[in-house]
Amino acid sequence: MLIGIDVGGTYTDAALIRDRQVVRAAKIPTRSELLSSLLEALDQIMEGVDPAAIQRVGLSTTLITNLIAEDKVEPVALVAIPGPGANPSGFTVFDDAHLIKGAIDYRGRETQKLQPAEIAEVMKKIEKQGIRKVAVVGKFSGRNNQHENEIYKYVTQNHPQLEVELGHQAAGKLNFPRRAATTRLTAATRPAYRNFISQIKAALQERKIKAQVYILKADGGTLPLEKAVEVPVETIFSGPAASTMGVLALTPEGQTSVVVDIGGTTTDLALILSGRPLLVSKGARVQQHLTQVRAFSVRSVALGGDSTIQVKADKLQIGPLREGPARCLGGPVATPTDAMRVLGLIDLGDEKLAREAIAEIAKQLPTNSMAPEEEPVITTARKIIDEVAVILTREINYMFSEWEQEPAYRIWEMMQKERIRPQNIVGVGGSAPPLIPLIAKDMNCQGIVPDNAPIANALGAAVARPTMGITLRVDTEQAVYTLAEDGTQERLVRLSKFHLEEAENLARELLKNRAEEMGLTEYSREAEVTHRELFNMIRGWSRVGRLIDVEVQIPPGLIAEWIN
């Protein structure tokens, strides 16, 4: 049996799965203490179940998202080694950074040494500020981590109270600003995430659940619980990833669908192209900064079932605020959920309270906007539902203008040989059933609300397979190769006729080895090359070597237990 749990902003969902069927589900309000919500949902679905029968546990949590959004993380000092080239002052991530001298070039060669006196001065300044965490990032540290390691050694010997995060370990790919943002976020969130994971392990041990536990990442893949603490920021935006993977599991293979996950506070939009979720090419945007976190291309709309309804200038305004649950569930204000309850579209909460809430809105609207043949409460409820559908349809169309800029989308569209829209609008979440048909009609698509739509996120967390990747850089002149993910640099043994094919084979082998270390051998067989480039280096009139870049990824997908 499989377990999936998704800790969302409004509700925590859990699913117990056996033989590709959801045999038990739970949905409870998410409290500020996320772990207690997770464990309550777990205990509900595990009642009377033998813990030894659980084969796999998948978790999706808003912990990292909440920590960053609510600014509940410790401050992190950024120490940057920019070297020559672009001025860091042009990027906001470096606004309060400590810039120090030293340089590694794009091929990983040291061109300027660090200045020990300068490092000492910077660390004393950080210490006086009362900051305990330091992110150290060099522009080309992914090609040679020498400078970052030198600073790490100095700090551990002279300022042991400071905790250091190194850029080549947190995010080794090129793009200095994104690597700096990712490293800083990793340093800021790791302590809280480490504590959260230790609590989960203890709670599962107490419940005698010995199954392997996986954490969902922003790219729809999972990582073993023990490995997730190394890359906490990769679990940001796991909510949209969970809903996308849930839709992937609940719809026919190979179809193209817009995912509309209607929650209590927000609605998340994502896109599946011929069975492949669309990834954002530039990395996830956290607050105002782009990062190197692989993530689905999603849009979060501040509109959900619990959004506050107001009347301003004789017009309905729905969202972006949420002041609590719907009135029919004991909340303070009218919401779309109340409108659905009035119209009999859902059977949730107290109908009398819902009618009272919508009646208050009806009194504030001009009488000429009311249908004469219907009572004002019914007319207003219909207007609310229609307005929600209009807003979401507009947001989907706007999102397509962004999706169409993604290279993966443009390639997919060329493969179709015509400009087409998706086959399906697939809705998940508790408010999906009444809204999806309206949105699908406006977009001339098939509207689908699959079975288990209310707990699709938990299902997605349960059945998403692990993902991982390798970014290989080969320099045949220097006879070395480098892995961007952690800065590993090794000598090349065979140099003669080293072409793209050899680099791809090496990258696949290195990915396989890493997958074995993490217990993910079976998934490494699904690895595919996502990027490759070869540059000949010419000196005089002769080629003196090649620079080869290859990226190999295990793409997002579903575990064999769900597919077979």
Describe the protein in words.
This protein has 564 residues and is α/β, with parallel strands linked by helices. Among the domains are: 76-192, Rossmann fold; 309-454, no CATH class; 469-563, no CATH class. It contains 17 helices and 27 strands. Strand 19 and strand 20 (315-318) form a beta hairpin. Helix 11 crosses helix 13. It is globular. The two termini are 14 Å apart.
From the alpha-carbon coordinates, what is the Rg to the nearest angstrom? 26 Å
Instruction: Kindly report the average pLDDT value.
Output: 88
Compute the number of strand runs: 27
User: Major sheet, described briefly?
Assistant: 6 strands, mixed
What is the subunit arrangement here?
A: single chain
Question: What is the gist of this entry?
Answer:
The chain is an alpha/beta fold. It is 36% helix and 24% strand.
How is the secondary structure organized here?
Layout: E1 2-7, E2 11-18, E3 21-29, H1 34-46, E4 56-61, H2 63-69, E5 76-81, E6 98-99, E7 103-104, E8 110-112, H3 116-128, E9 133-138, H4 146-158, E10 163-166, H5 167-170, H6 176-206, E11 212-216, E12 222-224, H7 225-228, H8 238-250, E13 257-262, E14 267-273, E15 276-277, E16 285-286, E17 289-290, E18 299-301, E19 309-312, E20 315-318, H9 336-342, H10 351-364, H11 376-403, H12 407-416, E21 424-428, H13 432-443, E22 446-448, H14 456-463, E23 469-475, E24 480-483, E25 489-491, H15 500-517, H16 521-524, E26 528-539, E27 542-553, H17 560-563
Parallel strand pairs: 1-4, 4-11, 5-6, 5-9, 9-10, 13-21, 21-22
Antiparallel strand pairs: 1-2, 2-3, 7-8, 11-12, 13-14, 14-15, 14-18, 16-17, 19-20, 23-24, 23-27, 24-25, 26-27
